[in-house]
């Protein structure tokens, strides 16, 4: 494994310490969970969808929590009271926990479950205060003008 030195980033950029921390975390956590399988899809600009195959789970057995920059999905199966004698068991029934790192201003819009697929819709809504703006120089006064670039 190759280690990266982020010291030059700290010297020449302001506010990117969080980005460097994300890289450090990614290097340490190479063993990302693979169960249950999931897709992340770009629906449109600033709209995303996570689809997770949760066959055998009931809605009451899945918890979705969004806090700051993390989306956490936890599946906890209720134990069957009746012991079953499987000849072949191909449908997994183990508990799981997935954490997704969300970019700034990304929030969960909806979550639905249909035919064993959990679908979570996300959208990035950048507040007006964070959008680019053009600064026009006018004598001694500075006037802020909304950027015409999209």
Automatic annotation (TrEMBL):
Keywords: Stress response. Pfam families: HSP20. The keyword Ribosomal protein does not apply. It comes from Undibacterium jejuense. Belongs to the small heat shock protein (HSP20) family. InterPro entries: A-crystallin/Hsp20_dom, ACD_IbpA/B, HSP20-like_chaperone. This is Hsp20 family protein. It comes from the Bacteria. Residues 29-140 form the SHSP domain.
């Amino acid at each position: 494994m190759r280690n990266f030195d982020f010291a030059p980033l700290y010297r020449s950029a302001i506010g990117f310490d969080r980005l460097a921390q994300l890289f450090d975390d990614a290097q340490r956590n190479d063993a990302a969970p693979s169960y249950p399988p999931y897709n992340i899809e770009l629906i449109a600009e600033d709209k995303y969808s996570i689809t997770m195959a949760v066959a055998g789970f009931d809605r009451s057995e899945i918890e979705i929590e969004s806090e700051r920059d993390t989306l956490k999905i936890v599946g906890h199966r209720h134990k069957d009271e009746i012991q079953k004698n499987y000849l072949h068991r191909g449908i997994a029934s183990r508990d799981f926990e997935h954490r997704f790192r969300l970019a700034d201003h990304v929030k969960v819009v909806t979550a639905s479950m249909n035919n064993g697929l959990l679908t979570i819709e996300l959208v990035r809504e950048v507040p007006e205060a964070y959008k680019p703006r053009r600064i026009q120089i006018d004598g001694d006064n500075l006037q802020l003008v909304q950027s015409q670039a999209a």
